[in-house]
Amino acid sequence: MGASAFQISMKKIHVIQGEHYVTDDPDLVLTTILGSCVAVCLRDVTNGVGGMNHFLLPEGPSDGSGESRRYGAFAMELLINDVLKMGGQRRNLEAKLFGGARMSNGLTDIGAKNAAFAEQFMADEGIDVVNRSLGGCEARRIQYWPITGKAQQRTVSNAKEVARLDEAPKLTSKIFTKDEGSLELF
Predict the structure, then answer these.
(1) Residue ranges making up the domain that contains 30
(2) By the 8 A CB rule, do 58 and 73 touch?
(3) Quick one: the chain helix, strand, coil %, rounded to 5?
(4) DSSP line for 40-102
(5) Per-residue pLDDT, 159
(6) What CATH number does residue 81 fall under?
(7) How many angstroms separate the first and last alpha carbons of the chain?
(8) Quick one: pLDDT at residue 65?
């Protein structure tokens, strides 16, 4: 079968800092770019629902404002609750953790704090962490298929791509981008 006869269509949602997304669409892939931030990829292994969040700091105000979404404790509650609202069951949840890099040598290692928070939160909630890629000193590009649990990661050393961490467009619920005929594997 020639390349033109075989096309792969994939819907992508890019999850930026302070956002999360939950779906039951088997054709959807969630993506993000992480530096010191952490993304938790969570799914119900039985009921076909899952999602991803992307948080900046472990703890902060949890007053429900947009600012609260940037903090791990609030971001985790939103992700878990939305998975459960879509039919997930706590006993079937599994997680994959990514990020927490040390992006600057001279400052506090916020990446390590974010990673430790995510690990402890999962342990406290009794959610099995089946895979993790935390720490290091390079940014990561993540792709996650929430229904199957498949995840791909590649490190990002291109300064321009890392600089775009804050420039990504805001997540718009239920708006999908189709990438006709291409699939990036890494």
Answers:
(1) 10-164
(2) yes
(3) 25, 35, 40
(4) EEEEETTTTEEEEEEBSBS----SSSGGGGGBHHHHHHHHHHHHHHTT--GGGEEEEEEE---
(5) 54
(6) 3.30.1330.200
(7) 23
(8) 53
Q: Per the domain annotation, does 170 fall within a domain? A: no
Name the β-bridge partners of 134. Answer: 99
59, 117 contact by CB (below 8 A): yes
Whole-prediction pTM value?
Answer: 0.78
Joined together, the tokens standing for residue 163 give: 């600089």
Q: Answer yes or no: is 131 within a domain.
A: yes
The C-alpha atoms of residue 40 and residue 114 are separated, in whole angstroms, by 11
Residue 180 within a domain: no
- Closest alpha carbon to 137 in 160, 162, 169: 162
Active site residues: 37
| Residue 128 is assigned to a structural domain of this protein | yes
pLDDT of residue 105: 78
Give every residue of the chain whose pLDDT is below 70, as ranges: 1-9, 60-70, 158-186
Q: Single out the residue of 23, 4, 16, 36 nearest to residue 146, CA to CA.
A: 23
pLDDT at 72: 74
